[in-house]
Amino acid sequence: MSKPSQENWYAKLIDIALPIFATLAALIVGAVMLLLLNVNPIEAYAALWEGAFGSQNALAETLVKATPLLLVGLGICISFRGDVINIGGEGQMIVGAIIGTQVGLRMVDSPGWLVVPLALLAGFAGGALWGGIPGLLKAYFNVNEILSTVMMNAIAVQLMTFLLRGPMIDPAQAELASKIPQTARLMENFRLPRWIPTRLHLGALIAVVLAVLVYILLWRTTWGYRIRSVGQNPDASAYAGIQVKNYIVLALVLSGAFAGLAGVMQVYGVNYRMITDGSGSGFTGRAGFNGIVAALFGQLHPLGTIPASILFGALLVGANKMQRVVQVPSALVIALNGLVVVFVVSSEIWRRKRQRRRLAAEMALQEGAPGESDGSEAAHYGGEVD
Amino acid sequence: MTERTILPSGHTQIDHLSMKGITKRFPGVVANHKVDFDVRSGEVHALLGENGAGKTTLMNVLYGLYHADEGEIILNGEEVVIESPTDAIEQGIGMIHQHFMLVETLTVAENVALGLRSSREPLTDLNKVSERILELAELYGLNIDPDAYIWQLSVGQQQRVEIIKALYRGAALLILDEPTAVLTPQEVDEFFCIIREMAKDGHALIFISHKLHEVIDISDRVTVLRDGKKVGTHQTAQATKADLARWMVGREVDFRPEIEQVEPGEVRLKVDNISCLSNRGTSSLQEVDLDVHSGEILGVAGVSGNGQRELAEVITGLREATAGRIFLDGEDITALPPISRTDRALSYIPEERMRDGMIKDFTVAENLILREHHKQPFSNWGFLNLKAVEQHSSELIHNYQIKTPSQETLAKSLSGGNIQKVVVARELSRDPRVIVASQPTRGLDVGAMEYVHSRLLEERLDGTAILLISEDLDEILALADRIAVIYEGQIMGIVPREEATPEKLGLLMAGVKEGV
Fold first, then answer.
1. Are strands B204-209 and B221-226 parallel, antiparallel or unpaired?
2. Most B-contacting residue of A217, A229, A381, A384 (CB-CB within 10 A), to test interface
3. Structure confidence by residue, pLDDT tens digits, B296-317
4. ipTM over 0.90
5. What structural domains and CATH numbers belong to chain A?
6. Helix boundaries (H) for B201-337
7. CA dist., res. A2 & res. A133, Å (int)
8. How many whole angstroms from its chain centre is CA B55?
9. Of the CATH numbers 1.10.260.40, 3.40.50.300, 1.10.8.100, 3.40.50.720, which one belongs to the domain with range B267-509?
10. Does B51 reach chain A within 8 Å, measured CB to CB?
11. CATH assignment of B16-249?
């Protein structure tokens, strides 16, 4: 059967190339918008490229921005594969960062080689806790996880604002009138190693290693097998003896844990303190949400999420530069990001339709087969079957 | 041109329709090769063949869903071109698919009107539609409330809605694609009455099936397809079940396989005084007692919905028993979770294989280890041993003759028979001590059915205890050593194979106890 495999290869190539085309299409529409603002799009995109990849420092900044996206995205790969929709990345990042920061602020007399790994683990655990609560609620009380994770975000933001303005506030700030909501700075020996002179820190490398580990987890371990199996078909999983509830909780615990890790790495790798402007995104930079987009862009594959995160990191960093050089309003930069998302999501829907059609054709070869029809008749009668 | 007869439903009769030399190719496969087929007004013409023989493809060509590469369609003596279902409907051809095309949240009338122009656009004319539905329903005894919502209807009633939908659109020729696959035996009887009534009135009916006894029951003529080619067309009255099976499969088929005598051994599965609730919380099983011995097949016969599903689930641990105990080889397993029962070599072939037996988006290989993925050699300290998985699945694919392009193929793209083979391979290859098999051959064609039966009989010879739950009485009579009949959650009686007749079981199935 060499022919089908050849066709599969071709189909796979299209699947991989599709997001790239979608991004290009988004940039073309963006170019029209730039033209309407009397800006030369070539100049603008040159600035964007320059800002994202043009120098050692630009590249490093792109990767710094990509790191939390990747970590959150890895968690999203796990939860979405388990058919659990985790929208709580923001809150999980925050709680991971709070607990991880506590480690560094309290263990001031301990050596760095002990504190830093411990802090990262604490962040991991904090995120796991914040993801695990909606997980338990879903598994045992059938609470919709989309709602509960979003609500957990709100709780985490309030908790952070309270702590950073009160109990955890930098003693120096406490005495000043400005009272910037931030913690004290971490000891110098508690910082993740950097690639001097840039801000690129060890966290980026850790994230890439973790991407490989998540791939192994999902496709090479029994845990991953069960998470995916529960995600695809909880009934059949129960029949096979899998404890479905446990794996729903596990999917959210792991998903939250990776977001928590993203949070604590922002503290130990980038800012060296926990700081916010009073809003949730003041600390996270919306990585808890953008990570979802990155994971979807990477087709919920941990390795695919790596380039996807870099792309979005580049857009974030490059857009800043573009804004400065060609003087476009910042709204346009946000719009450009939005365009990429819209095009990628649309192309994903198109890809699925294509896949379904391919499947329908395959099934026509083995008629009377599985319990699915292509719905052509209902469509013909004007009905929707899906 | 002569005046055409008008049917009682008000549609113009189709006297004769023939398809000549129809060839339809898909990449790499010839689904239909020079097939001739014809149907006349007033007859039921059965189209018989195994899954994949090309029956549905041929009918999809007639209904305009596919375009034939070669061949022509002649309707009442004139060649017609059918490009789409719209064309087919205009010509008076209607098709009822195996899977219903109904919107659950709409009423019957709304479903019938869906996609049609209202007589007073843009307002709907549902009252008129309802009137017409009642008219048509009366004509053929379809007995449907136009204002009922689809989700309130049973499967049999939903099928009637499909028939009304086709008639409403002016169908004089109806294509019925495996219409009985989803019906209970009683619903099948009612459905056949409707078909006969329609044929008597001059409709032409095409009945696609792979169930021999139904073809013999209902059809006037039968055309057999095999591997996309026509084997022949015969008067049904002159063909026997064995003839049909031979044409269909291409060899002799054993309907009542020779059962070797096996001295039943010790009791392996003991169901002791078990009661449980249904999903609705009402009482389902009531004090059920069953013993299944080593080397024995105990059949459980009954009309669907009398507690069969609950029985299987209680034994496999998916449903809690409210009273009673279950023993496996003498060990009380009543309180054990499903996985512990699995680990004690209890195998289960679930009734709904697509929902409960398979993970559609997993590969064949992944599905084949569903039960054993947590054990050696597939799992090493929580890591999957892909080599072992691959070896295991290629062995099973070979031993159980699973037709799949590769073990990496997603389960959902296999045919129904092959999906069941994957389930059977997985459950039987674990060397089970007890097997609970629910409707193991439902929806399978003759070849696949024979195969599953022979595998179950082999297990029986190996000393496995098998509980065979089936609504197919022929299957139970062919395989079971003893037959328990279940009615409203109670066991009405257990009949040894030698004493079992369809009449005797039928009475028990209807809840009539002998001597009472």
1. unpaired
2. A381
3. 999 999 877 788 889 999 999 9
4. no
5. 40-327 (1.10.3470)
6. 212-218, 241-249, 308-316
7. 49
8. 16
9. 3.40.50.300
10. yes
11. 3.40.50.300
